[in-house]
Model the fold of this input.
Amino acid sequence: MADRPCDITDLGNGRYRVSDAARQRLAHAAGPPEARWVFLDGRVYVIDTRGPAPAAAGARGRAHDDEMALASPMPATVAAIHVTVGQTVAQGDLLVMLEAMKMELPITAPRDGRVRVVRCAPGELVQPGVALVELE
Amino acid sequence: MADRPCDITDLGNGRYRVSDAARQRLAHAAGPPEARWVFLDGRVYVIDTRGPAPAAAGARGRAHDDEMALASPMPATVAAIHVTVGQTVAQGDLLVMLEAMKMELPITAPRDGRVRVVRCAPGELVQPGVALVELE
Amino acid sequence: MFRRLLIANRGEIAVRIIRACRELGIESVAVYSDADARAPHVALADRALRIGPPPPLQSYLAVEAVLGAARESGADAVHPGYGFLAENARFAAACVEAGLVFVGPPAAVIARLGSKIAARQVAAEAGIPVVPGAIPADQRDETIALAARRVGFPVLIKPAEGGGGIGMKAVHDEATLGAATAQARREATAAFGDGTLYVERLIERPRHVELQVLVDHDGRVVHLFERECSLQRRHQKIVEESPSTALTPRLRARMGEAAVALARAPAYRNAGTVEFLLDGAGDDARFYFLEMNTRLQVEHPVTEQVTGIDIVQAQIAIAAGEPLPWSQDEITQRGHAIEVRVYAEDPAHNDLPQAGPLLLYREPTLPGVRIDSGVVEGGDIPVQYDPLIAKLVAWADTREAARRRALAALRTCPILGVKTNIPFLIALLEHPRVVAGAIDTGLVNEERRALLDRSTGDPPPEAVAVAMAASDAPQTRPAPHGAVDPWVRLRGWRG
Amino acid sequence: MFRRLLIANRGEIAVRIIRACRELGIESVAVYSDADARAPHVALADRALRIGPPPPLQSYLAVEAVLGAARESGADAVHPGYGFLAENARFAAACVEAGLVFVGPPAAVIARLGSKIAARQVAAEAGIPVVPGAIPADQRDETIALAARRVGFPVLIKPAEGGGGIGMKAVHDEATLGAATAQARREATAAFGDGTLYVERLIERPRHVELQVLVDHDGRVVHLFERECSLQRRHQKIVEESPSTALTPRLRARMGEAAVALARAPAYRNAGTVEFLLDGAGDDARFYFLEMNTRLQVEHPVTEQVTGIDIVQAQIAIAAGEPLPWSQDEITQRGHAIEVRVYAEDPAHNDLPQAGPLLLYREPTLPGVRIDSGVVEGGDIPVQYDPLIAKLVAWADTREAARRRALAALRTCPILGVKTNIPFLIALLEHPRVVAGAIDTGLVNEERRALLDRSTGDPPPEAVAVAMAASDAPQTRPAPHGAVDPWVRLRGWRG
Done:
């Protein structure tokens, strides 16, 4: 899997030694095969060890991808809805303010557009992965 | 088992909460049933949970018990033998000097007596539980 | 001294206070919601009482539940920590009514300093500079323009209500004032239901520097020097240090005098923090009163590390009526301390808080590094509360040595199961402006893209090899549901 | 500065040095025996090389193997830590011959100060008091009695060879001298094969107080004040602190001057420790040179905590030719630090070393507590080496606060799988004489019975209940073979 020869030694209790000809490092790992967490040199990666193309934790889904919608990553409460159906919005405009863990989570427009549907209401507890607003 | 009512809650990962009406404390435990190690309030106990009369780690076998012999608790090297067969020794006299882990372990006479057998030789690696010297 | 103290908080600060109690010979009483039944603060206290279900309003913010626990446990004092009820004047008053000593200033002082406008008045009366500003007599564009001219450009147009930076507009000249005013009014109305605007002098590239004070019950005041807290994301501090690289001895003395004067003004008692905006650096820098926090700060450890004074123990001693044991002259700064706040959050996605299981959690033990935390491996970061996992505080004889030490600590602090800001903090501590100490409150925001580029990326082959080699999680806990991706690809989305 | 440094050691001190390297930007190379293949010092270094099988003579003491590893790794410097090769002049010389910088004084200085008699001469020449004593011209009883009279009673009759207190006899008057001489001669012959005796003035109830010095390559010397190391068992320190309760400012200044003078005498370089016996306390106390240790001490952290100076980093900087960055005036003591050494040993049985698996090992994280260790949960205490598990170092602004903090750390440091001296250390820190600071080198031995009574006993019902409730070890490791009882009941023993 590695480009250059590298030895992995299981040191027990989630600790692994990664060594090549030049040096060795200490790594930590935990989690199931479909989402294995690895800590190495101060970075954390979540790796699916079943598939052929593991992805980096930090490199996934960017917010300004046109094909993506914004949804709460966790149960959150809708603090306020700042748009109405049919309203024109500019990129960066605040659409919905969520609240979770004492923090406000602003959901902003990823691009210019017009509000097609609002799928949530103030005070509502929303679940992850469910669309809050759709633009057209 | 306890004299007064006491609740034990398993907090996971070897941690236990011990609570009674007045207060609660954090305990840690690990090890197999025949020798369960427990840490509570800065003390450590090794408890056989199978038997009816568990013993304290610190209260076991005292050196000056007449019915006991001294043996190395671990592999050790015989550094020097300070007695010969037939020699009369007084309580506290040095019989054998062992060496393990960079430390000298003096084996002294638990009481007055005479050396009956010497069962080890200088430089020998001795195993735990094997008699080094017998007195009569 | 007290016999039994109730800690009306959770997490690392509850653990911190329990430990102070133990060293002072005081019995500690923890309170917990159902989400925290197995949390470390519950396990470590001498007693722990359940106060309600997970939502804060029904547990850690429920005044009656907390007071009930104090009554039931026979506590004679209450420490509120920070957050939750710490700056709630009604709670402080209710404690006193219930016969409990509240570890903090009197309720009236909390109430007075809790109001931004009243606090500004206290500062002005004490002769402490405040940022020049004005609430226009009416909200017509011309009146606002008049106020802006009086205050002097550049100005900040900000909503009179609310916070979090929403609706705030920087205006550098009169030409752009009209458009900015209109936009600020629109955003303020949308976010807070009130479009009232306020005009303030814009301090460009300010630093956030705060002074720790302690006041005993005879009104004796000392300050414990400054904390530099300019590294903030979304108006929340993530790295703090002491001393500040911006302060000269003369400026430090002037700010210390201002902080002490401010603490004297409202008959302050116990620990408090006077926050200033600092404009410039060195002898000629100007500072402006921002607010006074009437409680323990999250970042108090950096002060403890450089002064050698235990602020939590001092708070408790003061509350018990003991006089301050040191004069101002006896308090000195030694070396340099840097605190980094490790949060369960995703810097790549607007610092979204994360929750989940701590599959693996190992704290580094390095000489000169102090860790304040309230979690253990096998535990959880619950969804309901602040996602602070731990504070890593590095002390060394120089700032550069402390910075390297903080980096060493972050690089040997594996936390698996929830995303954290550790890679982001590493990139931040390695940023040339942070290395040079040339920081201000805008830095993190301005450099966010560069910091993210340095802290994210595809896993190197070695990490993949480790993932492949790891046969099982080291925990006996059930495996997690998998990493939560905050940005979910929705089927049926039409662009 | 160096590019790559090899650490010729293991355990906590190897980890300590690796961390210093990381902060200085130096690559670290660990060496290990087969017993340590999975040890933390091996995992933490940038590179690790096997040097041999477990016995020290074939690994950590094998000069050729260590030098081979240095060559293979391309290291340009070697840090020996303490113990093993740290005071081996031949090793220091071999390093230099191999083109490696040895982090320590020159080989000739090590050799000179390693000889007790030569070291006494160095001290005498530097005008530092040594304990009055004499090697009698011949070993006849009358000659020894003459020497005793000249030295003055009370005296200590001790073997010229050997150590560890074997054969040493305190004699308070001439009446008992003859019998004591005969017994000492017998024991010395039995233990060391040499009955040569030496007469020394007996210092009753002495303290062991040592001074840390640093000397750069221009010969500039500073001292970092004292460490009080009187709490010893079997001549090995178990609790150390700084400052010492016996020192007044004047006495401290005198001892500091003596330590600096001593370091100047033999053209000393790098870090060293001057050990003194202290007779009495306060301005009028007398101190006598004992020996000079030409290496890092186990107890160096207490000095680091009160002075704020990183001694290991200073050692490396000095070895790299850098000048000392501080003058004596700039070095100050702040607060109080206490170190307790946690050993795998059984105080109830002559402090017998223990070996075995660390079924559970959790280090406390308390503000003001530093832990230096080289083990992890799931690892082992191997049978072949020194059984030191960890050093807990508590710092606070007063001695009493530091003592309480050390107690809090010990009480929250669960170590299961091997017996440790933690309960004994707790009893020791709670002993009235330790609380009062009225300690001397005889205390632990005199109070051993009382300390054991306070630290052993049957398990309370709560502990039994926990044992019953614990269904399984928390580790995935195989269960241990059971607790080793050092005193084995032998069948067939006839009384």
